Amino acid sequence: MKKLFIDANAFLCYLFRNKGWHEIQKILCNEQNTLYTSYGILNEVKFKLLYTAASGVSNKKYEIIKIIKKNVKLRKIVLKKYLKFFLEISQIITIMPLNTTVEKLSIGFSINHALLPTDASIVSLMKHHEINYLVTQDKDFKGIPGIQIIPV
User: Fold this and answer.
1) Mean pLDDT across the stretch 120-146?
2) Could you tell me the pLDDT band of residue 7, with boundaries at 50, 70 and 90?
3) What are the CA-CA distances from residue 40 to residues 6, 73, 122 (Å)?
4) What is the CATH number of the domain that holds 93?
5) pTM of this prediction?
6) Most buried of the four, 1, 41, 42, 63, by CB within 10 Å?
7) What confidence category does residue 62 fall into, taking pLDDT thresholds of 50, 70 and 90?
8) Closest CA to 11 of 55, 52, 41
9) Can you tell me the distance from the alpha carbon of 7 to that of 84, in angstroms, rounded to the nearest whole number?
10) How many domains does the chain fold into?
């Protein structure tokens, strides 16, 4: 049985039905896998769903943020879809919170491996919970000792 951490870009690939989404679906449905993610990752998924929905109107970040804040209908549509997704995956995935120990570890990974904060938190959670496999499209994890990437 493999313990796998699912990154935000894998969830987004699955939700948008991008190239590789079938592979992610197989991973999510494989009962031989024990799946993990974090609330931080799910917040990133929520934001990117909103951002993508609003980016059809503008390509300027500050304008997209304004659209998200002002457009109640857009928020309702996107977040209703997200909630359905969240309720489904929360049945099959352990969603881990960050804690003081993990946060301290993440600082070291940011400094020593040049990881951005969310990526450092992923590695810290994985190390703390002895998870060796990461489902991601992100190349920044390459070369992190003890982390095996399952590309999607």
Assistant:
1) 95
2) very high
3) 12, 25, 9
4) 3.40.50.1010
5) 0.92
6) 41
7) confident
8) 41
9) 19
10) 1
